[in-house]
Here is the input.
Amino acid sequence: MNKSITVDVTITKQTSQRMVIEWPDNLGDPTDANVLKALRDGTVDYDDIIDEDEIKTLSYDSADVFDTEDDNDA
Here is the structure.
């Protein structure tokens, strides 16, 4: 007999996103390096995600089981 379970899982994934960012003039030219630094530092945030491609799942970080139910295969 199998059980159906409901699980809240935290997953780390590698994705590629195309996003829209409002770039302030005081941060200089929006070069690749400057944009990456501003995103990492939290200086800018994205306004919209235009496209997202999931590349792969890197890890399953945690799982919390909160519901189980026996399947009746009879």
Notes: Residues 3-69 form one domain.
